[in-house]
Write a structure and sequence with these properties.
mainly alpha, three-stranded antiparallel beta sheet, 19 helices, binds glutamic acid
Length: 482
């Protein structure tokens, strides 16, 4: 049987990390088994409708490479793939259950239901409908329907015994049927409840594996009773523990925690985010940590999923992001970093590719760029203490004499490029009989005005060009001569 999984997000306007993890696992379960990954937009909750929210879903799947085989934009044999466009499909299924005696019409008014709530005692949650309408005669039902009386359709739950199912992560889950309410399947406006629609949709779309948050665990027995009532096969359930912010709090966009888009804006790379969230609840059989999506497809298995909640550790993600940047092929890296560099470096004569190359090993996020390159456009104010470095064996005096010595050499250098600068400076070190650092540290300091910089003396001089290099060295000499 073909494995078919579905990602069924509600368009909220952002991609919560937990939702993206659900999408990833669904994608991997399908792709590890040569199956299909389906996108279904669950937009029936109109109050939550947000303009542009569906695009956030499409964009996220596209950027992350979680490409769906069927969905509203790509079509497929089991559409429509937008729940609001399926509105008309559910009533017939509810009526089928009524015919089978598995569901019934309920004409109770709001007042009556509110009264029941009160009877249950103040403060007590109204949990169970009292099945008042279950005992209506067929004539009463027909008359009510004919007279246009508003109604809902309720699922008739068994009152005895247990409903048990196997969850692929949580194991055997069992509830007493007496605890189950006769839940509404069709609302008084004729629309299905989520609890009904998802079962019908998953069945009609031939979904074999349902991956969703553990908050749905308690509803699953009701879903399974629906599958049984129809005589349909229930899917395999894969419930996932929540992604936590710390030991006690769930990660939540409402509390200001980062969504996928937020992370991208903070300079994280999509591949690194996907790699990191793959490990939030799944462990590979060995200790490998870095996985491309292709490698995940090969290594992923449901048996590696854990039911203990994992904590979203931004430091771990930051580390992983740095590893991704370091390992990235230069052209791809440059395409990501170039916009950030253009924002941070305004001087058009500077070679951004050379600057990018200096940064590749030092960036943890793409947003680290601006702080690292701020000295290229303009030399910052600095004090001469920066020239003093114990390991480099430099003092202010040594720095002054080194800068004075290198100035004419650099002024007269015929080719201004890194190797020529390197060779001339190393020759000067030899002539002066000093340590490398005693010349190179002062030059690096004079060129950057900072205690540390991406790139050393040669690279910075090469990028800044002769004129600017000479100017900055002269500035250093001036400061050190005071
Ligand atoms: N639309 C639901 C949500 O976004 C999906 C739940 C499910 O996967 O069934 O929470």
């Amino acid at each position: 049987m073909e494995i078919r999984t579905r990602f069924a997000p509600s368009p909220t306007g952002y991609m919560h990390i937990g939702n993206l993890r659900t999408a990833l696992y669904e994608y991997l379960i399908a792709k590890a088994n040569g199956g299909k990954f389906i996108l279904r937009i669950e937009d029936t909750d109109q109050e939550r409708y947000v303009e542009g929210a569906v695009d956030v879903i499409y964009n996220t799947l596209k950027i992350t490479g979680l490409i769906h085989d069927e969905g509203p934009d790509v079509g497929g044999d089991y559409g429509p793939y937008v729940q609001s466009e399926r509105r008309g499909m559910y009533m017939q299924y509810a009526q089928e259950l009524v015919k089978k005696g598995e569901a019934y019409y309920c004409f109770c008014t709001k007042e009556r239901l509110d009264g029941l709530k009160e009877k249950n005692g103040e403060g007590d949650a109204f949990s169970h409908y009292d099945r008042h309408c279950l005992s209506l005669s067929q004539d009463e039902i027909n008359n009510n329907l004919k007279s246009g009386m508003p109604y809902v359709i309720r699922q008739k739950m068994p009152t005895e015994g247990k409903t048990t199912f196997e969850d692929a992560v949580y194991g055997t889950i069992s509830v007493d049927n007496s605890e189950l309410d006769d839940q509404i399947l069709i609302k008084s406006d004729g629309m299905p409840t989520y609890n009904f629609a998802n079962v019908v949709d998953d069945h009609l779309m031939k979904i074999t594996h349902v991956v969703r948050g553990s908050e749905y665990l308690s509803s699953t027995p009701k879903y399974n009773l629906l599958y049984d009532a129809f005589g349909w096969d229930a899917p395999t359930y894969v419930h996932l523990p929540p992604v936590m912010k710390d030991a006690h709090h769930k990660l939540s966009k409402r509390n200001g925690d980062a969504s996928f888009q937020d992370l991208i804006e903070k300079g994280y790379i999509s591949d690194a985010i996907i790699n990191y969230i793959a490990l939030l609840g799944w462990s590979p059989s060995d200790n490998t940590e870095i996985f491309t999506l292709e490698e995940l497809k090969k290594s992923f298995s449901i048996s590696g999923l854990s039911k203990s909640p994992s904590i979203f550790d931004i430091q771990k993600l930051t580390w992983m992001n740095g590893e991704y940047i370091k390992a990235m092929e230069f052209e791809k890296y440059f395409s990501l970093v170039e916009p950030k560099l253009k924002e941070a470096v305004k001087n058009k004569s500077l070679d951004l590719r050379k600057i990018a190359a200096l940064l590749q090993k030092r960036l943890e996020t793409l947003n680290d760029v601006s702080a690292l390159v701020d000295f290229f456009d303009e030399l910052p104010e600095y004090t001469t203490e920066l020239y003093v470095h114990k390991k480099m064996k430099t003092t202010e005096e040594i720095a002054l004499s080194s800068l004075k010595a290198c100035l004419p050499v650099l002024e007269n250098l015929s080719d201004w490029e890194e190797t020529a600068i390197h060779d001339s400076m190393m020759a000067l070190v030899g002539e002066l009989g000093i340590k490398n650092g005693q010349l190179l540290w002062p030059i690096r300091t004079a060129l950057s005005g900072k205690p540390s910089s991406p790139g050393g003396a040669f690279e910075l001089a090469d990028i800044l060009g002769r004129e600017e290099t000479i100017k900055r060295i002269e500035k250093g000499i001036e400061l050190l001569s005071k």
